[in-house]
Structures
1.
Amino acid sequence: MTKTLSLENLSKGLYFHTGYVAELEVEFASTTYDTIAAFLDKYETVELVSAWTDTFLVKVYGSGEKEVNHLCAIIDEEYNVLSTEIVSLSEV
């Protein structure tokens, strides 16, 4: 019986790291549709998870923990953002 060298056979038992994700609570000063849509369009690595009255839960993706934390800090400095809080940070 011969075994072939295929990507499937070679990758068995290997873990492929793809990056990190943070769940971030973002409180906005203004929650109009246009404001939130512009915010989400601005950041390619941000995904809306849920929304409350003025606070939104978003996922922020990055290649490493440092990059995700940096993106969260940038979001915190947005003119329309009152506050942010990292709820969780994990590998994906």
2.
Amino acid sequence: MSAISDERARLHSALVAACAGLIEAERVHLYTPPTIASPCCWIAQPRLNVAIVGSPGATMIIATFPVYVVASGYEPAQAALNDELVARVWDAGASMARAEASSAVPQPVDVGGASQRAVVVDVDVTVTARTLCPIEITTRALATNGARNG
């Protein structure tokens, strides 16, 4: 698994916990669902950016995960539920180490009929390693380094 997959899974767990009591856990999707049955939320494909912190500079990767929240019902009910879902997603981001929600933007979503109100909440997650793929450490490499250092 990559650092992106790991961070997505961590965000998903935080979302399930934060949305408990408001929407069922099955409606908090790890990926974009094939059909949208609102109310629900899902984690879309992240944007990746490089951040250089300090001097001379440590390079980190920031993964911005768009989290979509969609509510159904008449307009006042949709807006009220979206407000609550956005607050829960925002809190989920704040509950994670190295993560923070950074924006929330209203956006209509086509669900195969009338468009429904949605909000996209960006959750920024700092990936502390420069590589996104796991580094394989072999027994031979450990033995070689041990021989040099020992």
